[in-house]
Design goal:
This protein is of the alpha/beta class. The protein contains nine helices and eight strands. The chain has a six-stranded parallel β-sheet with strand order 5-4-1-6-7-8, with helices on both faces. A two-stranded antiparallel sheet has the order 2-3.
Length: about 220
């Protein structure tokens, strides 16, 4: 029998967990680099830079292209403009996401999103994909403390009105794993995300290969 989790709420990472956003994110990065006469970094290299918010993404992308950005703040602002104009050109939920969220809500679970993506982009993306209505709280990266800081997850639990010990975290990255461990929340790791670390090495309480598997884990 697989391990099950007796929880009142489930908190999800966004990029690489709920939604495959890498193609749009990297396309915006390469378009930004082109404006600075830099070579593109390409999809495979670019997807490994995702996970710590836009500013860090832009910093890493410029370094990967050969030199630091001349003005990180200006480059990040421009990246937001480019990415925001094509937010869901290719991005799509992973298989079984909507049906699983509907099932969990029908079972009375509160659902939240905790992401280092900016609040505005996170909400708009979920709205465009028809997923926003499933969530009781969407807490993006416009906070003082972001993952891997546990306070990001704790703030999401507070918004949900649920004690941290009654939450389950679902994510794909070392940031998710570190935040969950520090917040003392059990962690389910998805095996399709953007982490360069293999899922089994993230020390989660369970690893799933399909979103539908989550339904059997939530008691």
């Amino acid at each position: 029998m697989p391990k099950t989790f007796d929880c009142r709420a489930v908190i999800f990472d966004l990029d690489g967990t709920l939604v495959d956003t890498a193609q749009d994110i990297v396309a915006a990065v390469d378009a930004l680099l082109a404006e600075y006469d830099r070579a593109p970094i390409g999809f495979e290299a670019g997807r490994r830079l995702i996970g710590d918010g836009a500013r860090v993404l832009v910093q890493r992308a410029f370094l990967a292209s050969g030199a630091p950005a001349p003005d990180v703040d200006a480059a990040t602002a421009r990246w937001f403009e480019i990415y925001g104009a094509s937010l869901a050109s290719f991005s799509k939920p992973y298989p079984h996401v909507a049906s699983t969220l509907a099932t969990l809500r029908a079972r009375g679970r509160k659902l939240g999103v905790c992401t280092n993506k900016s609040d505005a982009l996170a909400v708009r993306l979920l709205e465009m994909l028809g997923l926003a209505g499933y969530f009781d709280a969407i807490v993006g990266g416009d906070v003082p403390h972001r993952k891997p800081d546990a306070r990001h997850l704790l703030a999401t639990a507070e918004r949900l009105g649920v004690l941290p010990r009654d939450c389950l975290m679902v994510g794909d990255s070392p940031n998710d794993a570190a935040a969950a461990k520090a917040a003392r929340m059990p962690l389910v790791v998805v095996d399709w995300g953007y982490s360069a670390i293999v899922p089994a090495a993230l020390d989660g309480d369970a690893v799933i290969g399909s979103f539908a598997e989550l339904e059997a884990l939530v008691a």
